[in-house]
Amino acid sequence: MATADELRELMRTEGAAVATNTQAFNDGRYASVSDLEDYEALKREARAIKEDAIERLPELLERLTETVEENGGTVYLADDAADANEYIRSVAAEREANRVVKSKSMTSEELEVNEVLEKDGVDVVETDLGEWVLQLADEAPSHIVAPAIHKSRDAIAELFNERFDPDEPLETAEELTRFARETLGEQIIDAEVGLTGANFIAAETGTMALVTSEGNARKSVAATDTQITVAGVEKIVPTVSDLQPFVELIGRSGTGQDITSYISLLTPPVETPVVDFEDDTTPISEFDNDREFHLVLVDNGRMDMRDDEHLRETLYCIRCSACSNSCANFQSVGGHAFGGETYSGGIATGWEAGIEGQDVAAEFNDLCTGCTRCVNACPVGIDIPWINTVVRDRTNRESEGPADWLVDGLTPDDEDEGAPLQKRFFGNFETVAKLGSATAPVSNWLAGTTVSRQFMARFLEVDPRRELPTFERETLVDWFADRESTVVDPERRAVLYPDLYTNHVQVDRGKAAVRVLEALGVDVVIPQVPSSGRAPISQGMVATAADHAERVADTLAPHVADGRDIVVVEPSDYAMFQREYERFVDEERFTALADGSYEILEYVYGLLENGSDVSALATTEDGAVAYHSHCQQRTLGLEAYTVAVLEECGYDVATSDVECCGMAGSFGYKSDYYELSMDVGDRLRKQLQVDGVRERPVVASGTSCLEQIDALLERQPRHPIELLAE
Amino acid sequence: MTARLSSFESSLDELGVSVTRVDPGSLCERLDELITAPAVGVAPEEAFDDPSLSLAETAIEVDPTPAALREATTGVTGARVGVADYGSVTLSMTDRGSELVSLFVDRHIAVLRAADILATMEDGIDALDDEIGRTRGSSIIATGPSATADMGALVNGAHGPRDVHVLVIEEEGS
């Protein structure tokens, strides 16, 4: 796991370039997909094709082998990297190749085939300009699509000038590109073997799709007489027509281009004549096209991933990089921290766990905070946070458990083995909160003492720079139990779900919610309900989270059956009911709870739309606020309700558009991640400090967001419901 | 048809690709105006199986030697299909080296028949699926010039052409 020092160093050296480039890609994605007539339908179509192809993989593999052989090529199915490399070596040796020119291929990075060929004395040249920069600099890719995303133009210029000592020092992007084009152009026409990856391969015709913009893959194939293509077995789709949704989605999802310059649909060996580029007498058409083609299909753990119900979805990944670019943490540290041996970004956890092993994935898996911003961005709808949760759970179970004396009492969870103490502390936050309220204000006073903070810093790795939540002595449930409902003839009847934070820490927003609901004619009850399981799931404690889900569903079911709506203040808990509970409770109870529950402002919006009178709420003539929606709330499409209600109450609303505040539950409390969390938060701070926003009160929906904004700004933020209850 | 052509033209415009409409009779004349010498080409007559689309009357060297190809600034090839909503053209690979001529030059001129412009990418992929299914051939869906952002800013002309021009042949009555 990257330490605070390592993350700090990466943010210092690579952070600026990574942040600028990933955010540009991410903004481009939003703009580009908004041009599509039906983006969601296209994603569903892409997903369905991948689901079907992985399901039928053995049959498609067989068909592809037949068609490639009919076309005159050779197929080699490699069990692992060593097997694939041995085959590629033998092809290069047989061809007596002096030089292999490569187009960009993540699978070849996975194989580390360059080193193997170089040992045989073969000159291996990366022709993708980004990959070439890294080859010269002897660095690893930091992004799956734009491998040199961490390098600035200045750094590349310095590298080229040092390495090649050109007559005139190179400076502009134009000059650097021109120089690379010329240098690599000479090397390409002189090579014997072209080594490519493949984005997709159609089994029915043996046609591979290569998604590129530079034209180097085209040249590497056209200028050589031997084509080797390496591809993971998961790249196979049935037919060329199945490529359509991917062709429309891959560029938009990744770098925000509607389409890349070239989608090569090659059915090798290709027809282009194999020419001698020095020949000045023979017309091109008189050269033969006697090309060899070798398709190396790589298993390397993929067939086992296919059999793993949780990792299987990883195989749908089309390597677009949307999950990297949309990830707030990735935007700060890039793939050198948020990545494994080969792959980077959120989906890398699945790839590295399946290909390299659990331990490699564990190195960076904590950087996924489960904010879910990648979920809607993924063109094949992979539940990337869930893969990260499962891998974290497996890592917990493989690691050594903490000493019993530290665990007893604070962590009454269902984790039979393993989770580290810090994870169990945060995962069992319900117990901490109950104790905290029961003993407040002593607990708050004690938590603030030097001795406690030292204990927390040492054993729980809670960063001493963070303020700790202050527990209220009187919980929301206790407060509510002592009062009479003010509603006589209710419009609707609801349960206000006492989520952990609203019940123990931010009790005021719970009280405000009750007042608003009652003002709008809702009969409210607040029963004792277990916490949602959000805290344990964020620590990868799946069994504990599942137990919470069961108990919550059981407790709420009678209320739902009785016709009460379930209203939730904390978006991360609401998201549990809508997303994760599907995995934990049976379909009937999941659907009842998911359909019957509402985020608080979504519910208020519904009441107002259905005739409740806004004048029952606190309204304003000329109010202005800045609103930061919660990451998981935005993924569920709920931001608009809060904005609409605030506007109806007379506010002018300025909204943030950062993907996440950076706090993400416990993440920002952890010593290793405090500075990263603040770096992510800084992007939100800047948006809240621009002209026209700087003077506005700030409202935010999530507990974490409120804590983070409190740390970022002088202004103390509040939950939007509190504005309506004034 | 006219709507598709206009949509194709506006997509190309967004990509910074210039486009010219031409009637079959003045193809050679227009090509001579558009090329930057030295120019090489694969006659569109091959792509379209239409002898009237010969390049014999132009300054373009048809079926050049590899050395002449490397010296050339402009490359002219046929494009089988146009895709209106993306401004893409499909470039088939042929044994006359169409791929080399469209790729190893600074300026690529793609000659396309107006009737071959399809409305959507879905139609374009279906046409390729059909073509590849029959021929087991290869095609490039080319959209705008070769480009890279790997050197710190977007630059046209990475490994392939930095400048693309599309010449659309409008048959009479089309």
UniProtKB/TrEMBL annotation, chain A:
<keyword id="KW-0479">Metal-binding</keyword>
<protein>
    <submittedName>
        <fullName>4Fe-4S dicluster domain-containing protein</fullName>
    </submittedName>
</protein>
<dbReference type="InterPro" id="IPR037171">
    <property type="entry name" value="NagB/RpiA_transferase-like"/>
</dbReference>
<dbReference type="InterPro" id="IPR004452">
    <property type="entry name" value="LutB/LldF"/>
</dbReference>
<keyword id="KW-0813">Transport</keyword>
<dbReference type="Pfam" id="PF02589">
    <property type="entry name" value="LUD_dom"/>
</dbReference>
<dbReference type="InterPro" id="IPR017900">
    <property type="entry name" value="4Fe4S_Fe_S_CS"/>
</dbReference>
<dbReference type="Pfam" id="PF13183">
    <property type="entry name" value="Fer4_8"/>
</dbReference>
<dbReference type="GO" id="GO:0051539">
    <property type="term" value="F:4 iron, 4 sulfur cluster binding"/>
</dbReference>
<keyword id="KW-0408">Iron</keyword>
<feature type="domain" description="4Fe-4S ferredoxin-type">
    <location>
        <begin position="358"/>
        <end position="387"/>
    </location>
</feature>
<keyword id="KW-0175">Coiled coil</keyword>
<dbReference type="InterPro" id="IPR024185">
    <property type="entry name" value="FTHF_cligase-like_sf"/>
</dbReference>
<dbReference type="InterPro" id="IPR009051">
    <property type="entry name" value="Helical_ferredxn"/>
</dbReference>
<keyword id="KW-0411">Iron-sulfur</keyword>
<dbReference type="InterPro" id="IPR003741">
    <property type="entry name" value="LUD_dom"/>
</dbReference>
<keyword id="KW-0677">Repeat</keyword>
<dbReference type="GO" id="GO:0016491">
    <property type="term" value="F:oxidoreductase activity"/>
</dbReference>
<keyword id="KW-0004">4Fe-4S</keyword>
<keyword id="KW-0249">Electron transport</keyword>
<dbReference type="InterPro" id="IPR017896">
    <property type="entry name" value="4Fe4S_Fe-S-bd"/>
</dbReference>
<feature type="coiled-coil region">
    <location>
        <begin position="36"/>
        <end position="70"/>
    </location>
</feature>
UniProtKB/TrEMBL annotation, chain B:
<dbReference type="Pfam" id="PF02589">
    <property type="entry name" value="LUD_dom"/>
</dbReference>
<dbReference type="InterPro" id="IPR003741">
    <property type="entry name" value="LUD_dom"/>
</dbReference>
<dbReference type="InterPro" id="IPR037171">
    <property type="entry name" value="NagB/RpiA_transferase-like"/>
</dbReference>
<dbReference type="InterPro" id="IPR024185">
    <property type="entry name" value="FTHF_cligase-like_sf"/>
</dbReference>
<feature type="domain" description="LUD">
    <location>
        <begin position="32"/>
        <end position="169"/>
    </location>
</feature>
<protein>
    <recommendedName>
        <fullName>LUD domain-containing protein</fullName>
    </recommendedName>
</protein>
